[in-house]
Amino acid sequence: MIFLLTLFLAAVLTYATIPFAAWAGRRLGLVDQPGGRRRHQGLIPRTGGIALFVGFFLPVTFILVAPHLLPPDWLTWLPPRNDANETRRLAALLAGSLFCVVAGFIDDRFELSSGPQYGVQFVAGLIAIGGLIFIKHVNDPIGDGFLFGPDGFPWWIVWPLTIFWFMGMMNTVNWLDGLSGLVAGVTAIMCAVLALHMIFVADPPQLSVALLPLALLGAALGFLPFNFVPARIFMGSSGSYFLGFALAALGIIGGARVATVMLVLGLPALDVAWLIVNRWRRGVSPGQGGRDHLHLRLADLGLREPTIVMGYWGFCAAFGAITLLLNGQTQKIIALAILGALALAVLLWASRDPA
Question: Would you say residue 355 has pLDDT above 50?
Fold first, then answer.
C-alpha cells in the first residue's frame, strides 16, 4: 500500500505544482522562444523542474523524518530499514537534489557556460560522496564476487569513479532534454525498472529503498501530461540537473545497479560519447549547443517528434525488461554489447549525409 501511496502522492504533488511553476517562469521571464535549435511554437516556461523537485522532495522528506517524528506503533506501514547508513544517504539525496535544482534555476536564469555547469556536476558528486553514495563495488562479470575483492575499490578509485558517474549521468540527462516528454518518459522507465528490481528481483528485497524510485516515477508521470507534445512547460536545467543527479544516486543506493542503469540509458549515454568525440574532431567545444544530438538529427531527417520520443521510450523499456529477466552478470554484459551495437547502428544511420 505504501508503494502505491508514494507513487500517487508524488504524481499529484507534481501535477498540482506545475501551474505555479509555469506562472513563476512567465513572471520571471524564464521562457523558451522558438528559433535556432528550438522548433516549438510560442513562449513556453522552462521552470517545470520546480514541480518535479517538489513532487519528489516532499514524499522522500516525509519518509526520512517519519521514524523520528511518529510513534513506533504508527510506523508499521513503513518498510524497515536494513542499512544503518540509509538515513544519511537519504539526507544526501535530498541535499544534492536541492543543490541541483537551485543551480539549474541559476543556469536557466543566466545561461551559464559549460565550465560552471561542469562545476555544478562536480560539487553534486561531492555531496553524494559525503552522504556515502559512492561506487565501492562492481560485480565480477566473469565470476562470483566483486572486482578488487570484498573490500572493493581503494579510495583513490572510488572518488574519481563516483564523480565521473555523476557528471556522466547529469550530462546525459541534460543533453537528452531536447524533445517534449523525452527525458520525463525515460526517467519514468528507469525508475520503474529500479523499483521492480528492488521489490521483486533483489535478494533480499530492498523494500525501504524502493520507495525512492517510486517517488521519482510518480513525479515524472505527474509531469508528462504537461510536457508531452505539444508541451506546455519544459523542465529546464533545474529539472535536468535534478533528474540526472537523482538517477545517478538511485543507481548506487539501489545496490550499485550500474549495469541496470547503463542498459536502460545506454542509447542516450552512447550518444553523449559520440557527440564529444565528433565535436573534438571538428574542433568544437563538447559543451557547445547544436542540433547534432541523435534525437535532433532524427527530427531533421523528417521523423515526427512523438515518433522519436516513443521510439526512445521503447528502446529503453526493452532493455529495462532485459535487466529484470537476466540473472547473471555475464548475460548483462552480453546484453550491453548488443545494446552498444544497436545504438551504434542508429547513430551511424542518423549521421549519414542526407544528400
Answer: no
Q: Which amino acid is at 345?
A: A
For 263-319, the pLDDT digits (tens) are 788 888 888 888 888 888 877 777 676 777 888 888 888 889 999 999 999 989 988
Sequence-ordered list of residues with C-beta below 8 angstroms from that of 222, at least 6 positions apart, any chain: 10, 11, 12, 13, 14, 15, 18, 51, 55
pLDDT tier, 19 (very low <50, low <70, confident <90, very high otherwise): very high
Cell of 59: 514524499
Total-model pTM: 0.91
Helices (H) and strands (E) in the chain, counts: 13, 2
Q: Are 320 and 194 in contact (CB under 8 A)?
A: no
Q: Residue 98: which domain range?
A: 2-31+39-259
CA distance 302 to 350: 11
Q: Domain for residue 174, yes or no?
A: yes
C-alpha cell at 57: 522532495
Q: Contact, 135 vs 153, CB < 8 A?
A: yes
Q: Rounded to an integer, what is the distance from CA 293 to the centroid of its chain?
A: 18
Distance CA 16, CA 85 (A): 33
Q: 170 with 159: CB under 8 angstroms?
A: no
Q: Is residue 128 part of a domain?
A: yes
Is 100 a domain residue?
A: yes
Q: How far is it, in rounded angstroms, from Cα 209 to Cα 189? A: 17
Q: In angstroms, rounded to a whole number, what is the distance separating the alpha carbons of residues 171 and 169?
A: 5
Least confident of 114-118, 193-197, 199-203, 327-331: 327-331
Total structural domains within the chain: 1
Tell me if 352 is assigned to some domain. Answer: no
Amino acid present at 202: A
